[in-house]
UniProtKB/TrEMBL annotation:
The keyword Magnesium does not apply. Belongs to the WD repeat THOC6 family. Pfam families: WD40. Keywords: WD repeat. SUPFAM superfamilies: WD40 repeat-like. One of its GO terms (cellular component) is THO complex. This is Uncharacterized protein. Transmembrane segments: none annotated. The keyword Zinc does not apply.
Length: 429
């Protein structure tokens, strides 16, 4: 992949080129079956840039940078789409998670997690410089020259550091020995560390300053030692969230449980089976195996004070219909405060703001709830299955991404401000 963006042209019998037509078909088909798994806002205030950016992680292994202000302006004025400014070839496989870490020494950092098992650390200042160079090239030349400038800017970007998560034995002593995918990320800003959830059930703590120092010294063995394993799940970790107020980490897994970790002691403090409101023990292997048949826990989020945790779970029920639910967990009492069914939508992402819980998954809607899990309204989006939601802290704007590489930008009131859609396939039109 490169930063160059192929733009399909209308077909004409007077200007037919077989190679050009074939490329149009390939590019549009590839986009049609692409997926955006995660997204986040880079505000102008946090980066010192003139305009805010939106970053999105894709199944194709790239990270695309959008100028969301330009995207919204183009959509609102003419209902036209504005493409991405830059595309980074980040991982050899899907990119599942993005998060930011503000380092006193290295500035704002972007962490990415991929199916190849790598966690990569990128300097945001480098990304901004490359995006600015690509934008300048696009403004000052022909489309071919602009494509070359964008490709050159993207090719020059390299992660500041990278580490591959090792496979671990789960609490049952089982390990298949294959390379696990890095599927979930959470950041501890104060201690400058990341938490990584893996497809083999592993939960790892990553010392970011130490990793960057190891990368500067080109010491691969030292980079691997920056990862510290915590007690693992029986099955894949699908979601992580960290609460700075209580220094607790929550993980949700395919094994049907939520684990709460006390990060200073690196100890698993609680194993929670949401469906039956059970507190499990690490030594009770039979019970852990039984719970693994329960619906997977797909998303977890703390409130700001760490007193409450909202978790989403769901699976295919009888007849193949999906059934989803939300649980509000009282962390102080270690007990469930409320369960709520959300029908045929299996939740895949949730975001908490001080006033609203946003939930989305296997439907073309974002559902909004009060903190008591009372549904307020539903917002229609383009993605048939939603994997990522980001909220801009300054404007309250939502970015929603998912299947078929769809991205919707919504106001806090739910109005559509901009969209990104894959180019219509020549074969399908």
């Amino acid at each position: 992949m490169t930063g160059a963006k192929y733009v399909a042209r209308p077909w004409s019998c007077r200007d037919f080129d077989e190679d050009d037509c074939r490329q149009q078909v390939q590019e549009s088909l590839k986009e049609h079956y692409n997926t955006a798994y995660d997204c986040l806002f880079l505000s102008a205030a946090s980066t010192g840039a003139r305009e805010g950016l939106l970053l999105a992680a894709y199944h194709s292994g790239d990270i695309r940078i959008f100028n969301w202000q330009r995207l919204c302006s183009t959509w609102l004025s003419s209902r036209a789409q504005q493409g991405h400014e830059l595309s980074l070839a980040a991982h050899a496989g899907p990119v599942y998670a993005l998060t930011l870490l503000d380092s006193p020494e290295h500035g704002l950092l972007l962490a990415t997690a991929g199916d190849d098992g790598f966690v990569q650390i990128w300097r945001v200042a480098d990304i901004l410089a490359a995006a600015a160079a690509a934008a300048a090239g696009a403004d000052n030349g022909s489309s071919a020259a602009a494509g070359q400038a964008t490709a050159a800017a993207a090719a020059a970007l390299r992660p500041a550091a990278a580490v591959q998560v090792p496979h671990v034995q789960n609490c049952l002593g089982i390990s298949d020995g294959s390379q696990p995918a890095a599927q979930a990320l959470a950041a501890d800003q104060q201690q400058q560390q990341l938490f990584v959830g893996a497809s083999d059930g592993g939960v790892h703590l990553l010392d970011v300053p130490r990793l960057l120092a190891a990368a500067a010294g080109q010491a691969a063995a030292a980079a691997a030692s920056c990862l510290v394993p915590l007690t693992s799940h029986v099955a894949a970790v699908l979601a992580l969230d960290y609460c700075a107020a209580t220094q607790q980490l929550a993980s949700g897994s395919e094994d049907g449980t939520v684990r709460l970790y006390d990060v200073p002691s690196r100890r698993c403090a609680s194993i929670i089976h949401l469906q039956e409101e059970l507190l499990l023990q690490e030594a009770d292997l039979a019970e852990l195996l039984r719970c693994a048949k329960s619906p997977p826990v797909t998303c977890v989020k703390f409130d700001q004070g760490g007193h409450w945790l909202v978790a989403g779970s769901g699976a295919a029920g009888l007849g193949g219909e999906q059934q989803g639910s939300l649980t509000l967990w009282n962390c102080s009492l270690n007990s469930a405060a409320k369960h709520r069914s959300i029908g045929k939508c299996m939740p895949q992402v949730l975001v908490l703001t001080p006033s609203t819980v946003y939930v989305a998954g296997t439907s073309k809607q974002v559902h909004t709830y009060s903190f008591q899990l009372e549904e307020a309204r539903s917002l229609d989006v383009g993605a048939e299955s939603v994997f990522g939601i980001a909220v801009d802290a300054e404007s309250g704007m939502l970015a929603v991404c998912g299947a078929k590489a769809c991205i919707d930008l919504l106001s806090a009131q739910g109005a559509t401000l901009g969209v990104v859609r894959p180019a219509a396939s020549v074969l399908m039109s």
